[in-house]
Each structure stands twice: as C-alpha cells, then as structure tokens.
Amino acid sequence: MSLEEPIERTRTTDGRARTRTELECKSTEELFAATLEGEYDDDAPWEAVSVLRLRGGAGVLAVAKLYCGSEDAKARARGLSVLAQLDAGKPDGERPFTAECVSIAIEHIRESDEEIVRSAAWALSHLGTERAVATLIGLRSHPDADVRHAIANCLELAKHPEG
Questions:
Q1: Which three-class secondary structure state does DSSP give residue 2?
Q2: What percent of the chain has pLDDT above 90?
C-alpha cells in the first residue's frame, strides 16, 4: 500500500459526493436520461438510479412506468431498477406504490431480453411481497445465474415454506 492510495480514495469519495449533489439538483426527467448514459454497469447511471429511488413519489413512478413501456430495452431495465426500491428512504409500510411496482416487474419477468428479466427479478427480490416471492419461487430453476442470484437475495423468501 502506497501513501497515495488513501488520498486517491478520498478524492474518489469526494468526487462521488459532488456527483451525487449535482444529480440531486436535476429534474426527474434529467435523472432518468442520466440512467441511460454510458454502459449498463457504469457507476454514474446507477448513481442516478439511486437518487431516483430515494426521491420516489408519484412523479418518479410515472416516469419509471413510461421507461418500462419503452421500445428501448435499456430504458425498460432502468425503469425496473428504479421501481425495485422506489421510495427506498421510507419504511416498507410507508411505500405507497409497492403493489404497482410488483405488478410491473411481473409483467416484464418473461421478456426475451436477459437484462430486463434480471432487472425484473431483482425488483421482485427487493420488493419482497407475497406476490413477488411467489413469482420468484416459480423462477428458482431459471437458466440465468443472475436471476437465481436475485432470488437467493430475497429476504422474504426465507420466510416462505417453499423458500
């Protein structure tokens, strides 16, 4: 370990904090547009997803639903990723759109695009309602390892008799 490593980590942390602050100032539409920039696994689009999840509310839900209905597969996947933890800053009982988010994720779980199926599985895993868990149980033998990983990470699944 060199002496420069802690300094570099601090710069990276400071840079992320600045990026986060800049994203929080953007409109919901601008944030959704930012989720589509770069490659799928890049940090910046996921930071925008995180800000949208915490912002939550009916406005974010409305735009996420539009994205989930998009012709563009990446946009559908990002919409599902936002819905996975919409209103994440609130306790589960105070998240008003959970049932609707589960329904949307279930609609996308059988799509042909693998990334959308993965995003839908992760959404169901995070949402963890009875309907979400029942859907995930039906996918436990899915050929995609990331879908199975999402299922294995569903906390509510452990409480289910078939879990």
A1: coil
A2: 77
CATH of the domain at 15: 1.25.10.10
**pLDDT recorded at residue 20:** 82
Contacts of 69 (CB under 8 A, 6+ apart): 76, 79
Could you tell me the residue range of the domain that residue 41 belongs to?
A: 4-159
The total domain count for the chain is 1
Q: Are 103 and 77 in contact (CB under 8 A)?
A: no
Q: What is the pLDDT of residues 78-120, one digit of tens each?
A: 999 999 999 998 988 899 999 999 999 999 999 999 999 999 9
Burial 15-50 (b: 16+ CB within 10 A, else e): eeeeeeeebeebebeebbebbbeeeeeeeebebbbb
Residue 91 φ/ψ, nearest 5 degrees: -60, 155
CA max distance for the chain: 52
More confident residue, 5 or 150: 150
- The helix (H) or strand (E) run that includes residue 154 is none
Q: What is the pTM of this model?
A: 0.86
